[in-house]
Amino acid sequence: MKICIVGGGNLGTAMAVDFASKNHTVNILTSRPHDWTKNISAVEMLRSGWGRSLSLNAELNMVTADATEAFAGTDYIFVTLPSHVQSDFAKRAAPLVSDKMKFVMVPGFGGAEFLMQPILKRGASLFGFQRVLFIARLKQYGQSVWFERKTSLQMVKFADADVDSIRDDMTKLFSMPCEILDNYLCITLTPSNPVLHTSRLYSMLKDDDSAIEQNKFFYADWNDATSEVLFKLDSEVQAICRALKKIDLSSVLSLKIYYESDTVSALTKKIRSIPSLSKILSPFKETPQGILPDYDNRYFKCDFEFGLDILLQFTEVLNLNAPTMRDVMNWYRQRTKNFVRAVNLAQYGIKSAQDIYKFYREEKI
Question: Are residues 348 and 208 part of one domain?
Answer without folding.
Answer: yes
